[in-house]
């Protein structure tokens, strides 16, 4: 889906095809006569052409990948974010983003801190409620002459 004669084509939502140069300049080609290699991924995002209906901005990338990574990490699983690609292809932009359009890491970190704060608030509320229940039980015991 890249314009022009790009050596990379999106075949499906999970498959990219890389066309090899016809001049034989690539060492270790797959097989003689084979001029392309297909790569399969969990997700492929188009962040090149905003007019394309499959365009994915930072928010869509976070919704698809970041939330899943955060959920796994919160459950105690290791997660890894790998950004791979040609120089200037947008790896840093996808991972870090900008002040006005944050990338995956700032969005994940922000949400993680929100979850931790909410978890702490719930823990404090639960402790307060346990204390309140104990206090009521003590008062009832004292009112009935029990100690």
From TrEMBL:
Residues 126-135 have a biased composition (Basic and acidic residues). ATP binds at residues 85-92. InterPro entries: Kinesin_motor_dom, Kinesin_motor_dom_sf, P-loop_NTPase. The keyword ATP-binding applies. GO terms for molecular function: ATP binding; microtubule binding; microtubule motor activity. GO terms for biological process: microtubule-based movement. Residues 136-147 have a biased composition (Basic residues). Residues 1-147 form the Kinesin motor domain. Residues 126-147 are annotated as: Disordered. PROSITE patterns: KINESIN_MOTOR_2. Keywords: ATP-binding, Motor protein, Nucleotide-binding. Belongs to the TRAFAC class myosin-kinesin ATPase superfamily. Kinesin family. This is Kinesin motor domain-containing protein. It comes from Vitrella brassicaformis. The lineage of its organism: Eukaryota, Sar, Alveolata, Colpodellida, Vitrellaceae.
């Amino acid at each position: 889906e890249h314009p022009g004669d790009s050596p990379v084509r999106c075949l499906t939502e999970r498959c990219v095809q890389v066309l090899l140069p016809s001049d034989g300049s690539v060492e270790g080609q797959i097989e003689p006569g084979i001029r392309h290699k297909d790569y399969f991924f969990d997700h492929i995002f188009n962040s090149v052409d905003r007019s394309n209906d499959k365009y994915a901005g930072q928010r869509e990338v976070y919704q698809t990948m970041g939330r899943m990574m955060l959920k796994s990490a919160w459950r105690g699983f290791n997660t890894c974010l790998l950004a791979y690609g040609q120089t200037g292809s947008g790896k840093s932009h996808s991972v870090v983003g900008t002040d006005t359009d944050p990338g995956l890491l700032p969005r994940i970190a922000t949400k993680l801190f929100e979850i931790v704060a909410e978890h702490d608030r719930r823990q404090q509320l639960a402790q307060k409620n346990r204390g309140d229940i104990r206090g009521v039980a003590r008062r009832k015991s004292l009112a009935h002459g029990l100690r």
